[in-house]
């Protein structure tokens, strides 16, 4: 899988979808072969990925990531297969466990038992994608066999999970195709994520999982200003215990140290540390979305 870029549509544009497609086309023309779209509370990331995949043939499109809640796996499976058919085999589904506070703010509730929900969600997805049929009744989800669930041209769908904790990594290794960790440093990737997920995949006879490190990045000649931007942008994550553990494991002073900031050569060297640690790929999450800065990042992504 090629080095990817997280694509963020310009919310000030006249048309959100048109802007995303135009960005994706420019990035592809610059040599980028994989883009990822985050799910927030505006566009539908799976639907947008399918539209981009249809509009820019040959470009890999994926989600990083779609939270499980409040989505039923049958709905996600239908969306993902539709996107895969539109993208003619170039779509990848990235899902995540979600976070309680944003769920409570948006939906008025949160969902307990995240790892159990992840396991059952993946079990339903696997049945749909691998078998074209599902008959599942669990504690968190049920999916009956009464209706067709397959989409012509919609499979296979690679499934990745934004997993960093040991329980989530175990489930991911057993049932998914890999993980999409965000803000996991090279030491965390090499000493924690790779061994955990690989052991789980091996124990269940699954292929070696992909480890796609999602890295905040900025190409700049003003490193001090770039690090200040990284600190401001990533401050929220420093309040989350799982990321605090990453900072401790990486022996860093600040979460901003997990960002790849500097000139092109410096950023390439930082990204190669992830590959040397065992990541199968990296995906760059831009800290600055101005077009000239993005173009410099696209150049790095196309040449790593």
Write a short abstract of this structure.
The protein has a single domain, classed as Alpha-Beta Barrel (TIM Barrel).
Give a verbal description of the structure:
This protein has helices at about 15-30, 45-55, 75-85, 100-105, 115-130, 165-175, 185-205, 225-235, 240-250, 265-275, 290-304; strands at about 5, 35, 60-65, 65, 90-95, 135, 140-145, 160, 180, 210-220, 260, 280-285. It is α/β, with parallel strands linked by helices and about 300 residues long. It has an eight-stranded parallel beta barrel, surrounded by six helices. It has a two-stranded antiparallel ribbon with strand order 6-7. It is globular, with a radius of gyration of 19 Å. It comes from Mycolicibacterium neoaurum VKM Ac-1815D. Keywords: Oxidoreductase.
């Amino acid at each position: 899988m090629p080095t990817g870029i997280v694509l963020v549509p310009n919310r000030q544009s006249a048309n959100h979808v048109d802007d995303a497609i135009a960005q994706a086309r420019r990035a592809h023309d610059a040599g980028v072969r994989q883009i990822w779209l985050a799910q927030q509370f505006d566009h539908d990331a799976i639907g947008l990925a399918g539209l981009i995949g249809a509009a820019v043939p040959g470009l890999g499109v994926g989600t990083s990531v779609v939270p499980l809640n409040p989505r039923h796996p049958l709905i996600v499976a239908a969306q993902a297969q539709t996107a895969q058919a539109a993208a003619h085999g170039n779509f990848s589904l990235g899902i995540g466990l979600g976070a309680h506070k944003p769920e409570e703010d948006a939906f008025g509730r949160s969902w307990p038992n995240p790892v159990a929900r992840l396991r059952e969600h993946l079990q339903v997805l696997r049945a749909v994608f691998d078998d074209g049929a599902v008959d599942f009744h669990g504690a968190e989800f049920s999916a009956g066999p009464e209706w067709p669930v397959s989409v012509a041209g919609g499979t296979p769908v690679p499934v990745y999970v934004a997993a960093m904790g040991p329980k989530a990594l175990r489930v991911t290794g057993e049932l998914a195709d890999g993980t999409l960790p965000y803000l996991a440093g090279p030491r965390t990737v090499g000493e924690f994520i790779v061994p955990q997920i690989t052991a789980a995949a091996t124990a269940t006879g699954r292929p070696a999982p992909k480890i796609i490190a999602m890295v905040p990045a900025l190409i700049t000649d003003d490193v001090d200003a770039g690090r200040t931007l990284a600190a401001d942008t990533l401050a929220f994550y420093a309040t989350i215990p799982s990321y605090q553990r990453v900072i401790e494991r990486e022996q860093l002073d600040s979460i901003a140290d997990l960002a790849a900031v500097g000139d092109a050569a410096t950023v390439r060297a930082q990204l190669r540390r992830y590959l040397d640690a065992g990541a199968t790929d990296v995906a760059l999450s831009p800290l600055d979305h101005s077009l000239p800065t993005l173009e410099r990042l696209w150049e790095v992504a196309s040449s790593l």
